[in-house]
Amino acid sequence: MLTLKGEHIYLRALEPEDLLFLEKVENDEHLWEVSSTQVPFSRFILKKYLENSHLDIYETKQLRLAIVSQESSTALGFIDLFDFNPSHRRVGVGIVIASTTMRNKGYALESLQLLANYAFTHLKVHQLYANIPEDNTASKKLFEKAGYIQAGVKKDWVLTQGEYKNEILYQLIKHVY
């Protein structure tokens, strides 16, 4: 069974050719709030990151995959696994579709579904989770559509432009019956 290839997109490992796209996404200040970034990344640092992206998730506790269009073979964004905890069999999920014109076309939902299938099948995790700012309606709808359930609220969790925001914890738990 293929877990990283869907109907419209596929997920693949990062390649050296992703450097400029990675630089564009990582240095987009509009995304810094959700990625807890406060300073831009240099091309040198991102190149080193790409050089080490082949390391095992069991070693680094994270994995970033490119979301690629089947039709054009163009990278549309990234999907991440982070804070991988094999002892408790859980991992965090983050996703970005870089171009606003490519959003709301089902790519993110298909990516989340593929990633969940991959994580449940190959990493044998019991659950995936996402931390979403309370005011990020689009992300909340996306994760809910992918089957994630709101599990809690972290009060005053994120400080953005001098104002605290709540963060919602979503979980997708694999139930085996």
UniProtKB/TrEMBL annotation:
Residues 9-171 form the N-acetyltransferase domain. InterPro entries: Acyl_CoA_acyltransferase (IPR016181), GNAT_dom (IPR000182). It comes from the Bacteria. Keywords: Transferase. It holds the Pfam family Acetyltransf_3. GO terms for molecular function: acyltransferase activity, transferring groups other than amino-acyl groups. PANTHER family: GNAT-FAMILY ACETYLTRANSFERASE, SPERMIDINE N(1)-ACETYLTRANSFERASE. This is Diamine N-acetyltransferase.
